[in-house]
């Protein structure tokens, strides 16, 4: 029994055992949310953090507590922890190896102390055995994973040197992913700071002669956006767009996996390249809808419920798109415009949308283009990092299946 992908120096078959034969199980203890103190004298891990913060290895701890050590369960190097309860069976199948001793392990954590390399075991459980672990979980609204069930899990284990080689290789893959994520986060923070400085006019561009552009003006959207109201009457446009909070204007099938449009899309609204669309569909971050520019090079159609507007210049539409990427900017603009309708629904009609609070904007097209080009270059760098991260994570997902049996 050998994996599909293997390092050349290893030849021996992997041994099949139950996890209970090579491991001992225990549970964490205590540590509620109120016990967390950023200046606490003891590092700690709570079970919910396995879902939100940690990967297969844990070496940097994000939480601390002042709870006395004698009231807690402390880690040993190589411990593997798995949530003991969660919202779904697939989510609960999440293993992490603690690479530090003396870390307090909170309640609702299964602790596995094993003869197997802990990093190897974490990658293995999260990859090749994730579905099997999920099947072991019990419960409906809240699912539970008990040591007795974990002990029955069938696993295949190579020699210790091969375990360590696999663990080291996959750790390097994760290190590369994390470095790209850190780079992306720093670039996003830089872009956010630049946007704030642009709109406060702390940063200004010069014209081709090195002279200042005219001062920005406080403008209503009605002064720079035109609602063209074009319908797809002849069904001449067949591409249906969705409008997503992260991906913006995107082909609906590409975004959602299939079309959700009506059979006859003659009443759908046409959206041209560069147009700005207001969706009115609430999300958790954008409770009154999202505002995006069509940055594809194609015309398409969108729901007739949306507002579609042509900006004075494409660059100005891009600046508005970037301005409304901020949930705070979007909320502050839309919240005063909300009209409460029947059954407590929230409505903002298109005319109201255009006549909200004034926004400071550049009025000269040359400056608009310079700003749009500058921000676009930053956005492209971020998008490239996102693509690289996604490719590496997809590759890692394949490795977790092919390097184990």
TrEMBL record:
Coiled-coil region(s): 170-197
Is the keyword Amino-acid biosynthesis in the record?
A: no
Instruction: Give the Gene Ontology MF terms in alphabetical order.
Output: endonuclease activity
Domain of life per record: Bacteria
Q: Where is the signal peptide?
A: none
> Which keywords fit this entry according to its UniProt record?
Coiled coil, DNA-binding, Endonuclease, Hydrolase, Nuclease, Restriction system
Q: Where is the Type I restriction modification DNA specificity domain?
A: 12-186
Family designation: Belongs to the type-I restriction system S methylase family.
Annotated protein name in UniProt: Restriction endonuclease subunit S
């Amino acid at each position: 029994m050998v994996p599909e992908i293997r390092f050349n120096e290893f030849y021996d078959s992997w041994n099949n055992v139950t996890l209970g034969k090579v491991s001992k199980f225990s549970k964490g203890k205590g540590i509620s949310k109120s016990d967390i103190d950023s200046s606490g004298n003891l590092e700690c891990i709570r079970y919910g953090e396995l879902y939100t913060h940690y990967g297969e290895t844990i070496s940097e701890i994000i939480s601390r507590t002042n709870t006395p050590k004698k009231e807690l369960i402390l880690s040993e190097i190589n411990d593997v922890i798995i949530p003991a309860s969660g919202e779904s069976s697939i989510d609960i199948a999440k293993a992490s190896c603690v690479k530090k001793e003396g870390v307090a392990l909170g309640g609702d954590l299964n602790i596995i102390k094993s003869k197997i390399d802990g990093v190897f075991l974490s990658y293995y459980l999260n990859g090749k055995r994730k579905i099997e672990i999920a099947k072991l979980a019990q419960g409906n609204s809240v699912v539970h994973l008990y040591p007795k069930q974990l002990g029955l899990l069938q696993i295949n284990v190579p020699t210790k040197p091969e375990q360590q080689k696999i663990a080291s290789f996959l750790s390097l893959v994760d290190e590369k992913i994390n470095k790209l994520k850190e780079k992306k986060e720093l670039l996003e923070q830089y872009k956010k700071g630049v946007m704030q400085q642009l709109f406060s006019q702390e940063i200004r561009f010069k014209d081709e002669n090195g002279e200042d552009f005219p001062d920005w003006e406080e403008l209503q959207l009605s002064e720079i956006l035109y609602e063209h109201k074009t319908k797809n009457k002849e069904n001449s446009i067949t591409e249906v767009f969705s409008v997503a909070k992260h991906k913006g204007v995107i082909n609906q099938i590409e975004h959602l996996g299939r079309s959700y449009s009506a059979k006859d899309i003659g009443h759908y609204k046409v959206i041209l390249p560069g147009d700005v669309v207001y969706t009115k569909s609430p999300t958790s971050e954008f409770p009154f809808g999202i505002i995006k520019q069509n940055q594809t090079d194609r015309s398409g159609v969108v729901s007739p419920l949306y507002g579609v507007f042509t900006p004075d210049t494409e660059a100005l539409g891009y600046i508005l798109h970037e301005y409304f990427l901020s949930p705070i900017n979007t909320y502050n603009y839309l919240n005063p415009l909300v009209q409460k309708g029947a059954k407590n629904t929230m409505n903002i009609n298109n005319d109201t949308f255009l006549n909200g609070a004034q926004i400071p904007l550049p009025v000269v097209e040359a400056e608009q283009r310079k700003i749009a080009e500058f921000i676009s270059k930053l956005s492209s760098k971020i998008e490239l990092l996102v693509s690289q991260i996604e490719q590496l994570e997809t590759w890692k997902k394949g490795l977790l299946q092919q390097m184990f049996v």
